[in-house]
């Protein structure tokens, strides 16, 4: 909190004026802003390609490129880490949940448009989201883009398995 105040060059009073519920409200506002950026990026990628499978590869390539350039995946990894802290606060947990539900909905809608049943589309969307989230956390701990690269190779087979 003190780093935010220092970087923004604001007083604690100013912060609490805009965020009267304190750190939790600030965190939720940050999460909501990141969620919008993340989901807009995913939607844009999925709208540029005719199938979910074709859209998934560039989405993963972008994550890999971002990780290799920055050593992290801004926004995505922050959401993952905050999700781990979500047990502390129900509103924070709900803010994290909204992101994952939206990502899964984007993927499932594209899969349904590709001809998958709704049930299979939701199974695949959940599996893809889990795989990517797990790979991002492994990238951070291993300091390597290898886990995301593996997911990008395995993903087509995962989708074909459920077809």
From TrEMBL:
Give yes or no: UniProt keyword Transcription: yes
InterPro entries in UniProt: Homeodomain-like_sf, HTH_TetR, Tet_transcr_reg_TetR-rel_C_sf, YxaF_TetR_C
Q: List GO molecular-function terms, semicolon-separated.
A: DNA binding
Q: Which domain of life is it from?
A: Bacteria
Quick check: keyword DNA-binding in the entry? yes
Give start and end of each HTH tetR-type domain.
Answer: 3-28
Q: Where is the Transcriptional regulator LmrA/YxaF-like C-terminal domain?
A: 53-153
Q: Which UniProt keyword terms apply here?
A: DNA-binding, Transcription, Transcription regulation
Q: What is this protein called?
A: TetR/AcrR family transcriptional repressor of lmrAB and yxaGH operons
Please tell me the species this chain comes from. Bacillus benzoevorans
User: Taxonomy-wise, where does this protein's organism fall, top ranks first?
Assistant: Bacteria, Bacillati, Bacillota, Bacilli, Bacillales
